[in-house]
């Protein structure tokens, strides 16, 4: 992706709001930050999802709790949130 495309993609992610609030808790459009999903490979190519400050860095956040505990707590994985986010973006193109 070029930087321009990436910016556009990020703004779409941001428009959807926190993916955990939306898909797990049922509150779409929460103000969110961009969270990179760590996989093998370069961080600059890492896929991203939106997470609100609490679910990103707070006491119930993926960085606050650690990914494994966080996924267990909400009974979901980053990969599933990513899939749902991308489905939604593709559906609204
Ligand atoms: Zn949230
Ligand atoms: Zn993050």
Question: In what order do the strands lie side by side in the largest sheet?
Answer: 1-2
Q: Identify the overall geometry.
A: globular
Measured distance between first and last alpha carbons: 17 Å
Mean pLDDT: 92
Explain the overall architecture:
The two termini are 17 Å apart. The protein is mostly helical and 93 residues long. The chain has a two-stranded antiparallel sheet. The radius of gyration is 13 Å and the shape is globular. 56% of the residues lie in helices and 9% in strands. Residues 35-36, 56, 63 line the site of one zinc ion.
Outline of the structure:
The protein is mainly α and 93 residues long. The protein is built from 6 helices and 2 strands.
List the main descriptive attributes of the protein structure presented here.
single chain, 93 residues, mainly alpha, two-stranded antiparallel sheet, globular, binds zinc ion
Write the layout of secondary structure elements.
Blueprint: H1 3-16, H2 19-25, E1 33-36, E2 48-51, H3 53-57, H4 62-65, H5 67-74, H6 78-91
Antiparallel strand pairs: 1-2
This protein binds zinc ion (2 copies).
The site of one zinc ion has 8 residues, from α2 and α3.
